[in-house]
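hey can u check if this looks right to u? its 294 residues, i copy pasted from the old doc so theres a chance i mangled smth
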Amino acid sequence: MIEAVTFWNEANNKSHWDVQVDPEWRMYADMVRTAAQALKAECPQVLRVLGGISPIDPLFIQRMQGFGAIDDLDAVAVHGFPLDWNLWPLDQWGAKIAEIEAVTHLPVWVTEVGVSSFGAEEVQEFGLRRTAELLLDRVQRVHWYSLYDLPQAWEATTRHREAEGSSYFRHFHMGLLREDGSPKLALAQFADYTPRMGICQWFHFEDHRLDDAVDWLRRLGVRRVRTGLSWADHLRPDAEQWFDRMMAALEEFELTVTFCFTPESRGIQPHHTSPPRENAEFTEFCVAMMRRYA
């Protein structure tokens, strides 16, 4: 069921890691190193991957290497959204991958790539087709973000909403399906790229879309799914029942599971992006999830 794990999500992005607390990412590197060693001992057959970085930054990878954070990893991951947020053209995907390959011997995975339909669904349709052309024969793993639009009643995970302007609202239109479950134009061609192209779909705690999502993944021929198990959610009442239900529903797929989000009570700062006060607690969470689901 679990093919791979990634440690955190976009740690070089202030939306997901508090760089004011950890400005050199030493705490992050130590957290990854400790967790990777423990998971290697617990489940050596499961691939261990540095959480996808955004922006794509070879200097960050070099920093992680200098701290020993990738010594026990099998791959590094990157995220890219050149038609929405990144400051480089879509056709530079190959060059961006090469920048990372130049500084590490590990394979490079693309664990999130997507295009918002905020301006026009035709843009997303073109972006999917061109992304497939550029990446499917270039890297081992590609996960399209995402299956569903983010519901308007939920917040996008970002710490700088006020500075984003209209680009903030692009977060809500990344899906192949609208919030109500109806298909967009790009959905019709997505099956042309499966099973080589996977899906990245984050499920919120007790997410009402889970069963319908599984049905769509089957219909589209998806084999590889990336999702997350939240350390913060793990402390909620009935968390294990929800995790069990989600993981059972996704059991038939080849899963890449991301471990992330610090419980407010366990962080140096009371926020899910904070480094934990004790790295051992994050490691214990990762090991517990592997024992339960791997």
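Strands lie at 2-7, 47-53, 75-80, 108-113, 142-145, 197-200, 224-230, 254-260.
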